[in-house]
Amino acid sequence: MRILAPDKHPAVRSVGKNLSVTLEDVTFEWLDGNNHHRLIVPTGFLFDGASIPWALWSALRLAPHGAMDGPALAHDFIYHHKGDMPPGSYQLKTANGWFDMLSPLRRDVADDMLKALVVHFKAAGEVRASLVWVGVRVGGWYAWRRDDDGRKLAEFDTVFEETMERP
To answer: What domain range is 28 assigned to?
Structure first.
């Protein structure tokens, strides 16, 4: 897998300690063999970054946010939808232009993309990117199956309540 875009880290804003939100649409493009793919993550997508257990942060020299926001964004978007991407978000380029893909994006493709994006965004080199990949291959099944909406919205509500002015 070869990443073509984006060229810069996506514009995101922190929401509390554990979440970020996209401030604009972010387009990821990659080549997989001879196929040119595109994934569009919309403005306002709420994501939790790289789910790296805190004990491994120092060993890998990676935290869930910051340098890992770009790589984690596409991965989190695919996991959020469990591969069944919304219309217009996952496309394949042909000689006649871009066309929506009707087949789901598989979990292994999302994990391979995370590894490629870690290197593309220079969040880590090949060795640490490979360790991140092993981690999501081993533990990602849980994130793939959980209720992401409920978990993230509950955390967002908590952050919102904490930031509201009290009378």
So the answer is: 2-162
Cβ distance 147 to 80 under 8 Å?
A: no
**DSSP SS3 for 43:** coil
Specify the pTM. 0.79
**Residue 101 identity:** M
DSSP states of 71-113 as a string?
A: HHHHHHHHHHTTT-PPTTTEEEEETTEEEE--SPPPHHHHHHH
User: Is 167 within a domain?
Assistant: no
Spatial neighbors of 26 by CB under 8 A, at least 6 apart, are 6, 10, 11, 40, 41, 73, 74
Which 3 state secondary structure label does DSSP give 21? strand
pLDDT tens-digit readout, 127-157: 877 777 777 776 666 666 666 665 555 555 5
Instruction: State the total domains in the chain.
Output: 1
What's the CA gap between 115 and 144, in Å, rounded?
17
